[in-house]
Here is the input.
Amino acid sequence: MRLFDSHCHLDFPAFDADRDDVVARARRAGVERILVPGTEPSTWARTRDVATRYGLEFALGVHPWFLNEIGDLADQLDGAWGVGECGLDRKGDLDEQLAVLRPQLELAADLGLPVVLHCVGRHAELLAELARFSRMPGVLHSYSGPVELVSKYADLGLSFGFGGAVTWPEARKVHARVRAVPQDRLLLESDGPDQARQGRRGGRSEPADIAEIAACIQGLRAA
Ligand SMILES: [Zn+2]
Here is the structure.
C-alpha cells in the first residue's frame, strides 16, 4: 500500500534525536510521501531543509499559534507544495489571526498554490473568509468542524485530513466526520508529533502511524 502523510511537523525538535529512524520507519510502513507544513518565518528554513534532505514535500506559512508578519513569504515559496499551515483557532485574538490569514489566502490564490489550513472552533469565521474566493484548493488538516460544513469546504476544492484521533473508540464526533467526507477528499495525517493513537495518549505521533490510521478509517467507513 502506498500511503501519504499529509501533515507531519517533521522539522520540530521532537524529531531531532531520531529523525533518520522516523523516516526509515515511515518508508517500511509504505508511507511514500510526507508533507511538512511550516509554522513561522523563523523556522521556514528548517522546514525546507528537513523536507529537502529526505525528499519530502513542504509548505510555508504562519500558523495561528505562532502569529507573525508573513514577510517575504512570496519569495520563499519556490519549490513548496503550498501555503501553510495557516488558519484560525479559538485560542487567541480573532482579528489578529485574520490579519495574518488574509494575505496568505491571497498569496495562495495569486500563485495558484494549495493551502494547508488549521481551524479549531472558528469554522464560521474561516468559511466567511474563504467565501471571498471562488476556489481555495488544499487540505483542512485534522478536520474538527461540523459534518454540515463538509460540503461547503468541499465545494471550494478542499480535502479533509484525519489523524490518530480516529483510533480512539470514544471519539464519536471524529468518526461521524470521517464518514461524512467524500472518499476522494479524505487524506491521512500523523499530525506528528502531537496526535497520539489509541493507547498512546501523551506519546509522540509519527508518519509510520499512517498505516494504522488508514486501516481504522477503512473500518469506520465500511461499518
Ligand atoms: Zn500542524
